[in-house]
Amino acid sequence: MKTRVFGCGKFRRLMYEQGDRELSPREANFLALHREVCRPCERREIEGASALDLLRMGALQPEVRPQYEERVLRKLRVQTARDTWRYWSPALTGAAIAGVAIISAMQMVSRSTTLPVFRPSGQDARLLRMSHQGLPILLLDWDVSSTEASSPSAVRLDP
Amino acid sequence: MYNVLGNVAASFFQPRIVAGGAAEAAIRERQWVCRCREGDETAMTALISRHRGRLVRTATNLLRDRHEAEDVSQDAFLKAFREIQKLRDDRAFSGYLYRICVRLCMDRLRSRRPEVVEFDSIQPHSGGAVEDRVVVERLLTQLPAELRTTLVLREMEQLSYEEVAEAMHVPVGTVRSRLHTARERFRKLWIEAVAE
Fold first, then answer.
1. Using an 8 Å Cβ cutoff, are B70 and B56 in contact?
2. Residue A45: helix, strand or coil by DSSP?
3. Which of B37, B41, B45, B48 would you mutate first to test chain A, the one with the most A CBs within 10 A?
4. Is the pLDDT confidence value at A132 over 80?
């Protein structure tokens, strides 16, 4: 018959937990008995305690540099301003695009009333007249640079 | 006789005074948090002064870098103030702030590349405080972020299991198992370092 007297796994768990909580008398008794019998576990416990002591001694106690609060508040103000801009920037960009579009549309509408006058001169005018004999001839003012170019009547009929 | 009575009276009233002071501080902190919601910078300064030491210390022990720790602690304050509207209970500000700081530290640790540590140049048994810190730093770099954070919060910051669980946003059982694993790994790493 195989009897399990103690367990190294349980010892490993309890050897760390004894620093975290108060062990029950039964658990404490188990640890003591196991420690006496199992040398590797005893050594492991010593090593573990030494390692954790080293870890605790390695804790740092840093000094906070002066003007810490001011630096945090300054960062907070910058971030708040940035967030405000980020929040409103799509609306502002949309408004700017809409404004440009409206101005462009108004420009196009105002220019449509001043179209250049087409008036063929010399040879072209004669050719046009010949090809449309008997009919009223469409005579267009071609000379854009002339003063008539700014005339609102782009097309006129010549009997 | 009067001295004895005086000592008894002092020992009787002392805990009440301490408890009263803590309660008063808690009430004041709630007022500061309320004013912070309205953007009061004086209240923010008061809250920063109250919590900065603990935050910087925890971040330094987690990251083992003072400058980075200060940056992270400042980021934690910024995040806490900007998202203070999400905080439902004003009394929970301290834990809320601490949780943010721990999370930011863990993010930093995860983003770091794992280092290959050589122990040839250092002597773990030299006994000096500086040498101890160097050894601890090098051993900690070899632990994953979760194990390292659990170990540091428990062993260096002396937090209870419940506090560690709250700070890391994990169940207490997870803290217990992680702590056991972290301690075992740290012990093995230390043994290896000593053996080299």
1. yes
2. helix
3. B48
4. no
Q: What angle do CA B154, B158, B163 make, to 5 degrees?
A: 70
Residue B194 to residue B196: CA distance in whole angstroms: 6
Q: Is residue A2 pLDDT above 60, yes or no?
A: no
Residue matched to tokens 């022990």: B61
Report the CATH number of the B117-196 domain: 1.10.10.10
Across the interface, whether the CB atoms of B61 and A73 are under 8 A apart is answered no
Q: Do residue A58 and residue B133 have CB atoms under 8 angstroms apart?
A: yes
The ranges assigned to domains in chain B are 1-112, 117-196
Q: Which of B150, B156, B158 is nearest to B175 (CA)?
A: B150
Confidence band of B52 (pLDDT split at 50, 70, 90)? very high
Q: Which residues of A touch B156 (CB under 8 A)?
A: 55-56, 58-59
- Report pTM: 0.69
The Cα-based distances of B155 to A21, A40, B123, B125, B150 in angstroms read 14, 24, 23, 21, 8
Half-sphere exposure of residue A152: CA atoms within 13 angstroms, side-chain side? 2
pLDDT, tens digit (0-9, with 9 covering 90-100), for A58-95: 888 888 888 888 999 999 899 888 888 888 889 999 99
CA distance A100 to chain B (A): 36
Q: Tell whether B40 is within 8 A of chain A (Cβ).
A: no
Q: Choose which CATH entry (3.40.640.10, 3.90.550.10, 1.10.1740.10, 6.10.140.1670) describes domain B1-112.
A: 1.10.1740.10
Least confident of B31-40, B156-165, B179-188: B31-40
Q: What do you get for the CA distance between the two ends of chain B, in Å?
A: 64
**Strand residue runs (E) in B48-180:** none
| Mean pLDDT value across residues B148-159 | 93
> Domain spans of chain A?
8-55, 123-158
